[in-house]
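User: Hello! I'm new to structural biology and keep hearing that structure can be predicted from sequence alone. Could you demonstrate with TspO/MBR related protein? Please show me the input and the output so I can see what each looks like.

Assistant: Of course. The first part below is the input, the amino acid sequence of TspO/MBR related protein. The second part is the output, the predicted structure written as tokens.
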Amino acid sequence: MARKIFIWIIFYLATIVAASSAALWEIQSYYFALEQPFFAPPAWLFGPVWTILYIFIATIAYRIVMAPQSHLKPVLIALWTLQFALNTIWTPSFFGAQNLGIALIYISALDIVVLGTMYLLWSRDRISFWLAAPYMAWIGFATALNAGFFILNG
């Protein structure tokens, strides 16, 4: 049991480390300097939502790694790793480079990878599928938000 908890903690810490890279940029000043789409949520909402989503993302990784061996397990591990990389690179693209177009490309790719992961999870691990559903909903919304920022701010 302790080993399983340790493995889950490793995945959760990885998500926290990736998320903490946001501290490298002046997120608040840049975000509020942009012309906001009419549907932009209040800034305070991002922290709680991402905290919950990171728990879900770590749990999905844990469940994939701990699942019995199958021909799709390496594919699911690769897809999880790819979505994690795309999720992580979005922040420096949007806030660091301040390149709304490149950030939109990364988050659109993230949408596709998460949808593909969900497709494979549906028949293999419904719990992970349902953990991925709010993540997909949020990044779908974030994609629309990124597109709104890109349209309004160029």
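User: So the tokens describe the shape?

Assistant: Right, they're a compact way of writing down the 3D structure. Reading them back into a model, for example: Residues 126-153 form the longest helix (28 residues).
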